[in-house]
Inverse folding.
């Protein structure tokens, strides 16, 4: 859970490079602003990763309206 996740995401994708598997990335609302959180979610989507889990309910409450109105406007789906 930190701000610059791209190198870790890339390394993880290489480790889980099995087409039959999906990966979820855990990101932190505690250490990231709403904008940083959105940037991480966009990065994860660009890399075609299965999804995202957001840590820390105490802070995510501050970001829920923003995320619901932007990146999570459409319901999630399972591939």
């Amino acid at each position: 859970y930190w701000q610059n996740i791209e190198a870790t995401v890339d390394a993880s994708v290489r480790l889980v490079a099995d087409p039959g598997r999906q990966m979820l990335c855990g990101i932190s609302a505690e250490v990231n602003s709403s904008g940083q959180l959105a940037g991480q979610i966009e990065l994860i989507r660009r890399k075609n990763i299965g999804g995202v889990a957001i840590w820390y309910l105490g802070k995510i409450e501050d970001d829920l309206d923003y995320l619901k109105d932007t990146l999570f406007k459409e319901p999630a789906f399972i591939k």
The chain has a mean pLDDT of 82. Helices lie at 6-15, 34-46, 57-69. The radius of gyration is 13 Å. The CA atoms of residues 30 and 59 lie 6 Å apart.
